[in-house]
Design goal:
Layout: H1 2-9, H2 14-22, H3 28-36, H4 43-52, H5 60-70, E1 75-81, H6 82-91, E2 98-106, E3 112-115, H7 130-137, E4 145-148, H8 154-157, E5 162-165, H9 167-175, E6 181-182, H10 186-197
Parallel strand pairs: 1-2, 4-5, 5-6
Antiparallel strand pairs: 2-3
Length: 198
């Protein structure tokens, strides 16, 4: 969703920023900082766009319900932005799910800035270092299952017990000879959980 929001509202200049990010020349922290100055929209305009999109995996609600019934904790770690993640979760009555992301501050003059409460000072590439979050919470669980699809999922996937991957994450897992389970949607993940855990 973050890519779609930036593409829709950042105006001229975002293409070069995105190219540099995809090429690995800059991390998401730099990409967000550069893109923030290009935004030409209010918070309400962005949320109207986001909530009008079919942006949630159609199987995620059922997957989360299954996890609740089984006593499995679900956390969302995203290199996206807090205000629209919160809005999407509320739209689907999923506000109880803890999420960790970058944060946006909307200013009175119409500008915005992005802050990174979960960045990794040793790396400073991703705005939200998912590895930092994974390492923080892993001791609380017997088993960590990681589900991802993007560039920012490559590092944290190394620290999980089980990895579900698609898109870019799957390509990188194959490239790095890192074991993973390919999935298309959360329906696949739920079926695996039922088969494995009951």
């Amino acid at each position: 969703m973050g890519y779609n929001v930036i593409r829709r509202f950042a105006g001229d200049g975002w293409e070069e920023i995105n190219r540099a990010y995809c090429a690995g020349e800059i991390g998401s922290q730099d990409a967000y900082r550069k893109s923030a100055s290009l935004f030409r929209a209010t918070k309400d305009e962005i949320l109207e766009y986001v909530l009008g999109c079919d942006c949630l995996d159609s199987h995620f609600v059922a997957f989360h319900q299954y996890c609740k019934e089984m006593g499995f904790d679900v956390k969302i770690v995203s290199d996206g932005l807090d205000f629209y993640i919160e809005a999407i979760l509320d739209k689907y009555d999923l506000g109880e799910i803890a999420f960790y992301s970058n944060e946006v501050v909307f200013h009175d003059d119409g500008s915005l800035s992005v802050i990174f409460p979960w960045h990794n000072e040793e790396c400073n590439r991703c705005g939200n270092c998912k590895s930092v979050i994974l390492k923080r919470f892993s001791p609380d669980y017997e088993r960590v299952v990681y589900i991802g699809d993007g560039y920012s999922d490559v590092c944290p996937a190394k620290y999980a017990d089980v990895v579900f991957a698609k898109s870019i994450l799957f390509e990188k897992c194959v490239e790095n000879d890192m074991g993973c389970i390919h999935y298309r949607d959360f329906g696949d993940v739920k079926r695996y959980f039922i088969k494995t855990y009951g």
